[in-house]
Amino acid sequence: IQIQVCGMIILVLLFLFYKSQKSLQLYTEKAFYMTFCMAIINLALDIMSILFIEYRALFSDVIVLGVCKLYIISLVWESVFALHYVLVDLLSEKTHRRWKVYLVCLTLLQSALITALPIYIHHEDGATYTYGPSTLVVYAFTLIYILATIVVLSIFGKKLNKRRRAAVGVWMFVWVTGALLQYFNSELFVFE
Questions:
Q1: Helix axes 61-87, 133-156, angle to 10 degrees
Q2: Most buried in the list 20, 82, 131, 133, measured by CB within 10 Å?
Q3: Cβ atoms 150, 172 nearer than 8 A
Q4: Residue 188: which of 134, 145, 126, 140 has the closest Cα?
Q5: Read out DSSP for 110-152?
Q6: What is the rounded distance in angstroms from the CA atom of residue 155 to the CA atom of residue 53?
């Protein structure tokens, strides 16, 4: 949880710096802002899920599992927002808005499926994580969006803003690496 809290501090500081700058309210800025806010929400839900699991004696199982599901659902949404952010350079604003509606509707359906599937909590020997059908579905959906983002970066990279391409490329690399580590060795993510 220490890494997540440090990450949250960094994100909040970056957010404050970002908000202190004058904005032209360009469509690309709005896409970045939405993506940035989703990253903050995702990290906040990650921290909350760990805390709710750790102190689950204080809460009903429905609330604890609900917070855990909100967190894993936010992973899918963040991967969708990453794809959305990359597409902003490639599509006209009108086409991009239409794609955004499609992606949101699809992600809402995926979120409903994740909500309907069971989730379980492992909290022993200092290791805390969730597992079960809902988490497997999250891995699948998130992987699809990450791969779509990487494919777009690879195929259309020259048409993208260089800084956006580099930043999203590093983001996807770090995210895939973290997801693979967590999937194959859940005990690495320890709550102390």
A1: 10
A2: 82
A3: yes
A4: 126
A5: HHHHHHHS--EEEEETTEEEEESHHHHHHHHHHHHHHHHHHHH
A6: 42
Burial class (CB in 10 A: 0-12, 13-18, 19+), 176: middle
Contact predicate 139/183, CB 8 Å:
yes
pLDDT tens-place values along the chain, 192 residues long: 666 767 777 767 777 776 777 766 777 788 888 888 898 999 899 889 989 998 989 999 999 999 999 999 999 999 999 999 889 888 888 998 899 999 999 999 999 999 999 999 987 876 778 899 999 999 899 999 999 999 998 899 888 888 888 888 888 888 778 777 766 765 555 433
Q: For tokens 């700058």, name the residue.
A: 21
CB 149 within 8 A of CB 86: yes
Dihedrals phi, psi of 124, to nearest 5 degrees: -140, 155
- Which residue type, as a one-letter code, is found at position 40? I
The β-bridge partners of 128 are: 123
